[in-house]
Amino acid sequence: MDRHTRKDRAQAEQRKGKASQVAELRRKVRDLKERIREIERRFELATRAATDGLWDWDLRTGIVYYSDRFLALLGISRDEITQDLSGFRERLHPDDRERVLSGIHQHLARQAPFDAVYRIRTHSGDYRWFRARGDSECDRTGKPIRMAGSIADLTERREAEREARVSQQAYKALFRTIDYGIAITDIDGRFLDANPAYLRLVGREFAELCKLRYHDLTPERYRPLDAREVQSMVASDYADPYEKEYVRPNGDVIPVELRCWLTRDIDGNPEEIFSIVRDISSEKQSREKIHNLAYYDFVTGLPNRQLFHAHLQYSIDKARSDGDLLALFFIDLDRFKQVNDTLGHNAGDLLLQEAGRRFAGALRGTDRVFRSGSDEAGSAVARLGGDEFTVILPRLAAREDAHAVALRLVETLETPFIIEENEVFVSGSVGIALFPDDGEDVESLTRSADTAMYHAKDQGRGTVAYYSESMGTARVERMILENGLRKVLDEAELHMVYQAQQSARDGSLSGCEALVRWNYRGERFIPPDQFIPIAEETGLIVPIGAWILHEVCEQWVRWHNAGFEPPRIGINVSGRQVTHPSFLQTLEEVRERTGVARDAIEFEITETVLLQHTEETETVLRAVHESGIEISLDDFGTGFSSLSHLRRFPIDRLKIDRSFVRDITTDAEDRALTAAIIDLAHNLRIQVVAEGVETEEQA
Q1: How many CA atoms lie within 13 A of 420 on its CB side?
Q2: Residue 239's domain spans which residues?
Q3: Cα(568)–Cα(59) distance, integer angstroms
Q4: Residue 292 located in a structural domain
Q5: Residue 664 lies in a domain
Q6: How many CB atoms lie within 10 A of CB 220?
Q7: Is 553 in the same domain as 519?
Q8: What is the CATH classification number for the domain harbouring 429?
Q9: DSSP secondary structure string for all residues of 345-384
Q10: Whether residue 201 sits in one domain with residue 143
């Protein structure tokens, strides 16, 4: 091979090697470009996925790049911010601008890392809090050529932190100053913290408290209760409010109410118990006072009517369930009114107290004085009011046993009572009713015992009587009502209703009539035609009438003071009242005490009043009339109607009885009589009121 051939071959090999190198270089360039594109794709994907906004500032050109997330955090588009630093600077909060820009310059001077919290104005014009962190790149000479970083929106976090700080501060202030005790214990009851109010409540220092557990502060009997409440919290995180007692080192017992809840650790295990503790000493005292006022007689301390009814209902249900015989006693103190009238009400109260103690002491064995809340149905002494006591005697072996106990009660009264250094003698009458023979419910059994008691009084003082159906006569009923009337004012069983009177001309309100109603023992209403005659016969109408007069005058004044101009009110007055020596004095005292207008009331009397003590009656009625009170003659035409009465007595108004008005449209005689009465009254210049007008035809 010649020299030229070798040279050609070497040149060919050289060209081939260079071509291979070029191909390899091209391949590497392609790979590098692909890697760059992959990095760019990853950067773009990371930029889109990032929750923080990204920024990139080219210090050589001054151009700032903002990622889409950056723009989204500010709620702006690329057109709303310039691509240099001025766009960023313009959106900084004025109070933060100098500090942030100074931080950037210090970082570029390599004096500090860049990490700043500041406010930027958003699209809406509001400022939001952001945290920016960044780093810079330098050239070979150490000159910064690029700075890039991220921003994160801190607004919600800062607000949450602010609220947490405020809450923490409020909690600490509340913990220190609140009047309620707050204690924190672990699940085993060891104290972890307690506020000053709790320490005052338990009477201990915190260092001492840390050596104890929560059950060490309470009596032993509350440990099962505490254990149940802890179990409840473990199951549901909360416990219903409950009450117990703390015992202070000095022995004082403090009733408290606790409200507790449980916190758990990150794994859900019970960790701490928070307890809010309230001293309920005053509340319990108030509750006891209210309970005593509601269920116990304030004079004797014995159960009152309400508690008596509850216990009787319980005793009846128990006797019915067990098939037992039960006895109910009604006891009335004989001659009690005489003690009240001669020695005064204070002496009467002392007598009632001692009688109650004697009755309670006379009950033996299973007999006891009832107290609210007991599950045992023992005998119960109660005072219903006035001088009436009751005893419930359960689980009788035979009806004769009730008689023996009743005699024992009567015998306790035989020993004289020493009241305010006076020797007082009283006896007692006892009525006995048996369940189920004499009544199967509270109302019927009570009524039977009451009836038997009045029968015993009728038989002679200091006697005992069993109820029998033969006692349910009108005479017994009358005795019951009479005795009830003697106590009706003390028991506040009377109330007034008012019946309007309208003008026949225009239907306007021309007056009204006061009518008394009696709610006997809160159990039934007694019609006036049943109790008014008894009150008149016994003279009880005098105090009852005085009460009615005072009540009506006070009602008129109440209406007047409320802005309602009340009409004239008619009050029924009996002959016993008119002829009573204190009638006129009582009238003036009531007027003066209530301040009622002189013409606010009128008195309604019947013709029978005019027939009693004629001269005396005339004198009183004229005095009443001259004092400004008009007088109406009630039920005219049904009694001893006499024209002379209309001339002699100062009558201002006639009231035609409803018996004439009822059939006035169908009965010619009634119509003629009514017309004659109206004409007569008008001729005498006396007004007329018709009772019972219900239709336009009657009017």
Answers
A1: 12
A2: 178-279
A3: 103
A4: no
A5: no
A6: 7
A7: yes
A8: 3.30.70.270
A9: HHHHHHHHHHHHHHHHHH--TTB----TT-----BEEEEE
A10: no
Local mean pLDDT, 10-residue blocks, the chain (699 residues): 65 71 73 68 57 88 90 90 89 93 90 88 92 91 90 88 79 80 89 90 90 88 87 86 91 91 86 90 85 86 90 93 93 84 84 91 57 45 89 89 91 90 88 93 92 83 86 70 85 88 73 90 85 86 93 93 88 88 91 90 82 75 88 69 69 75 64 76 76 53
Q: Does residue 370 contact residue 303 with C-beta atoms inside 8 Å? A: yes
Structure tokens at 676: 């004659």
What's the full length of the chain, in residues?
699
The answer to whether residues 182 and 208 belong to one domain is yes
**Six-digit token pair at 192?**
């972890």
- Residues 523, 647, single domain; the answer is yes
Interatomic CA distance for residues 138 and 570, integer angstroms: 112
The CA dihedral of 368, 370, 376, 377, to the nearest 10 degrees, is 80
Residues near 535 by Cβ (< 8 Å), separated by ≥ 6? 485, 541, 544
Residue type, 3: R
Q: Are 516 and 571 in contact (CB under 8 A)?
A: no
Q: Tell me if 173 is assigned to some domain.
A: no
- Do the domain assignments include residue 669? no
**Domain count within the chain:** 5
**Where a domain ends, among 103, 120, 154?**
154
Amino acid letter at 17? Answer: G
If asked whether residues 81 and 27 sit together in one domain, one would say: no
Joined together, the tokens standing for residue 598 give 């002189």
Farthest-apart Cα atoms in the chain, separation: 186
